[in-house]
Amino acid sequence: MVMIVRVVSHVVFQLIVGAGIGGVIGELVTGDWLYTIVWSTAIPLFILAGTFASSTSRTPTSPTGIRRVPGIVASAASIPVARVAVLNPEPTAVPITATTVAEPAAATVVPVAPAGAIPLRPTVPWWSRALAISVILVGAAITLIPSYRIIGWTAGNIAQGRFWDGNDMRTGLHQQEAVDDLAHAVGTYKFVNISFYDSYVIAEAPTSSTSVTTDRYVWRYGRIESRDPESAAIDGAFDASRIDFSIVGELVERSKQDAGWDSFESFYPSVRMSNEGIVEVDISLSSAYFSATYRYTTSGDVIDRSGTGLD
């Protein structure tokens, strides 16, 4: 029973370590606040589980005392020595010469462990270490399951040299995937408006295929984060399945280059139906001094541009 408790406690401890590592990786890669909760919760659990696992691993040791020197028999009783009085004994002194001087016998040193010393633990076998590492990796992998796709995106971003902004929904590489997720949640590609921000996308879509009301959907961290009522009327719905949303990032860069400002405080693209019944991509730019809006067709042609700070 003690062995089972020991094994279980070690496995739990290693899974917690893996979950904490997965939480740190998940937060760095996705920015998801849920992973912040995971690793911050794993820290106190790591301490508790580690303490418990350590206590179950301790085995009682016999106290260390003074060792007996081999060849000497210890006895608690004293051995009497006969004493005989001798009158005028013969001298036994021997003159000191070079041949009579003997070297002292070398003292035999017997190493003795100090009292209370803890003996060294045996070396942990390689297979035990490999098993522990495997359990830790399993804990990290389970923690990262909800973000496997985002992690895959990040790997692709690195391959394309877009590590820092590849997942940015304004200028990155994955606007189409976000719209596909939204369409799956809505049940159709019919939208009223889709706006792109740095780490999230907000879309307005009909509540159902037969309703006249609309709902507001928020996509963030690779999932639909919320859905709330938005409007009592549908104003200009369009079919998003006919649009290649990978063009959004390209149009943002084109607009920024055309404006030619030294810096930008904000830039937000959105897709909507215009008053003329044309589906267009609007790019809103702003700096400390200027603001402007660029209008494009879904194929990338300029419809109009307006604002301040433009040549």
Structural write-up:
The protein has helices spanning 2-30, 33-57, 126-143, 148-159, 175-186, 247-259; strands at residues 190-191, 193-196, 200-206, 214-220, 223-231, 238-239, 266-273, 279-286, 291-297, 302-307. The protein has six helices and ten strands, in the order αααααββββββαββββ. Among the domains are: 2-59 and 126-149; 175-307, no CATH class. β2 (193-196) and β3 form a beta hairpin. By secondary structure, it is of the alpha+beta class.
Look at the structure and give the mean pLDDT: 85
Low-confidence stretches: none
Biggest sheet: strand arrangement = 5-4-3-2-7-8-9-10
**Basic shape:** elongated
The number of strands is 10
Spell out the helices and strands N to C. HHHHHEEEEEEHEEEE
Strand content: 15-25%
Major sheet summary line: 8 strands, antiparallel
User: How helix-rich are the residues, as a percent range?
Assistant: 25-40%
End-to-end Cα distance, whole Å, is: 81 Å
* Structural category: alpha+beta
Number of helices: 6
- Taking all Cα atoms into account, the compactness measure Rg is 40 Å
